[in-house]
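User: Predict structure, ligand manganese (II) ion.
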Amino acid sequence: MENMTSNKSVLSWINEKVELVKPEKIVWIDGSEEQIEALRAEACSTGEMIKLNQELLPDCYLHRTAVNDVARVEGRTFICAPTKEEAGPTNNWMDPAEAYEMLYAIAKDSYKGRTMYVIPYSMGPVGSKFSKIGIELTDSIYVVLNMVIMTRVGKDVLEALGDSEDWVRGLHCKCEIDEEKRYICQFPQDNTIISVNSGYGGNVLLGKKCFALRIASYQGKNEGWQAEHMLILGLQKPNGEIKYICAAFPSACGKTNLAMLIPPEGYYKNGYRVWCVGDDISWIRKGEDGRLYAINPENGFFGVAPGTNEKSNPNALASTRKGTIFTNVAHNLDNNTVWWEGLDKNPPANAIEWKGNPWNGQESEEKGAHPNSRFTAPAKNCPCISSEFENPNGVPVSAIVFGGRRAKLAPLVYQSRNWNHGVFVGSIMASETTAAASGAVGVVRRDPMAMLPFCGYNMADYWQHWIDIGAGLDPEKAPKIFNVNWFRKDDEGNFMWPGFGDNLRVLDWIIDRCEGKVDADETAIGYVPKAEDINLEGIEDEVSPEQLKELLSVDTALWKDEVAGIEEFYGKFDRLPATLKAELETLKENITK
Ligand code: GTP
Ligand code: SPV
Ligand code: MN
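Assistant: Predicted complex:
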């Protein structure tokens, strides 16, 4: 096949990798419908994908990964910076020379008898000043078809690149899907990513976490912008004005759900709407008017399937009704569709579960879908996709929201006193772990800015970068910073807040705060709403005034324990910014007052 570019840096890098992995042939992905259709057919002929009911789910496919390959592997993810100090205490580090040697030994000859697909892709609208280009080499059609949905792929990307050397090199080799030899390595100084022995999501769709967060966070530090694990939504008020919010929650903590929520009935009637710009990643930079602007560098959603239903997230469900790839969900053989826990109350009786075994929907021990099963859906399918989705200049950010899963402690919502206090609030985030990464689920861990697994350099320097960004903003124009917790539980273990669409009630308060329209109570941790300012109309049965008070309460005894935990965490960082140390001292004083 003919080369699709004459860019020397691209061609010489590909040649090097061809020598290494020895493919039987090379296919350049041009993004054309014919090519995509041919690849789908090929994947179906080998069993790599299953074509679903084309009447009910046009252009939809099912894929099952290896049973040992169902989530990101944080323990096997490395930042290969020149020194360990540059990767920092929260990242796994490997010496770059040693890493290349080890990875090349694993990758050597691994494409023998196989095809190398060359995927030129753009993160962000092609040609936008926010956007960055990558090239991923892969031996997986599944990866190609996912990248085609998740990013902008094809010839125009190479045209936009021209003969520039500024692009991210990505090599993915499935190899034997051997867990013991699985490595996800980022080389931020080389703009390079190498991923071996996996075929799953965030491990192999290199544009996503590896590039758009780990490599991009490092680029952003050097170039004066930010790459964040944040959704972007536009909240339309009854007067038609739209305010944009970026929100960072750890994996499987509600970004996709919040990004496309449907307002509660009363709000909807009054004209409230939510428009989705992005559900996972934000690239943020200062605009000419001095405000921060955000784009979503992705082109699709790689969303958690379980729990997605007509009630919890109808917009996500609608997004998956065409052109979607489902990974590790149950296959309903009666009508050749898909099912997952929480889709409805009728599990299929004649099905194949995610591992590929027959399943009758009744065996409560066995699940139909893996808890981290996913859909890969084109963003343009989303009924509430924002009209600004393709805007090359991004959207102006009014509020930044941090949040996590905390059964106790964190109130429903609170606002930081100012930017630096907001950076502190983000830096002390903690959340219960989920199925999105391999390992124990439900353990509280520190996850600053929801970036613990995704920051491509020393977390202390990343915090300093946040502080520097704030210092460059007029406080009047800087986004206000908040923290939310949809996951507070009562003593019986029930969620105290209905969540999902009802989270709009909290977003509404947040925007009112940004506009100086509503008062708040100053507490030890920041500004908390006055109970009467959270509208409970329509959910009085679910949340009593006492419960709301409880949800908004700041328990100083619990916060004292928390401070001890923060101190211990901060103790890991030799380069902790003095500003954050001072904020911690203030919090300590506030809660012992
Ligand atoms: P990643 O794609 O892994 O980054 O996850 P995400 O942050 O986009 O999470 P997502 O919106 O997919 O939600 C993950 C899980 O949290 C799903 O099982 C949801 O049902 C659940 N969830 C989302 N929002 C809420 C909420 O407001 N309340 C409660 N109780 N659960 C929620
Ligand atoms: C996450 O885990 O935060 C995801 C899914 O968005 S993955 O792409 O696998 O990282
Ligand atoms: Mn994510």
